[in-house]
Amino acid sequence: MARLLIVHHSTTGGTRQMAEAAAAGAVGQGEVAVDLVAAAAAGPADLLAADGYVFATPENLAAVAGMMKDFFDRSYYPVLDRIEGRPYATLVCAGSDGSNAARQIARIATGWRLRAIADPVIVCTHAQTPEAILAPKTIGAADLARCREIGAAMAEGLALGIF
Fold first, then answer.
1. How many domains does the chain have?
2. Tell me: the pLDDT tens digits for 23-51?
């Protein structure tokens, strides 16, 4: 059975909602096990056990969240040359842009020689004040549907052996 790993970090709930939507989309798409793991708890063993990945992060200060960066730092060298060719997708929850966090993940994935299966899904919350940035987020139905589609596509591709 193929295994999809969804690694996420979320402080205000927005990215968690996106990751959960991707997981919900992946469930029931053939014979694929879905592991939804917080970045703080994920590591090299999780990457090695999976056949594909969804990386979900907020963009903080124009970068991936620190906890997500910590996951990549702890995992990068232990799995280097051991996961190449596997598919991945990216979800970013951002206040205004999100493109730099997506680029950072793409650079890491390039080093691992992973294959992107879709353009990054970037959801902008338009939070611009300290109060709005720190407030709990609610991701809209249309954006959650985009995240579910990524999860479904990843799982279906893994189940069919396309990836």
1. 1
2. 999 997 878 999 999 999 999 999 999 99
